[in-house]
Description:
The chain is mostly helical. 93% of the residues lie in helices and 0% in strands.
Amino acid sequence: MFMLHSSDLKVGEKIKRIINQLIINQKFETHVINLFWLTREKME
Length: 44
């Protein structure tokens, strides 16, 4: 449980970094956010 939580935090940091990079590229921002939500829906 604790290890899972720790790895979730690492994934969250990666996602934050990716999203921050893509916000700089506003052209892709909406597309990536849509992809992110689609991926999350599939995982749940």
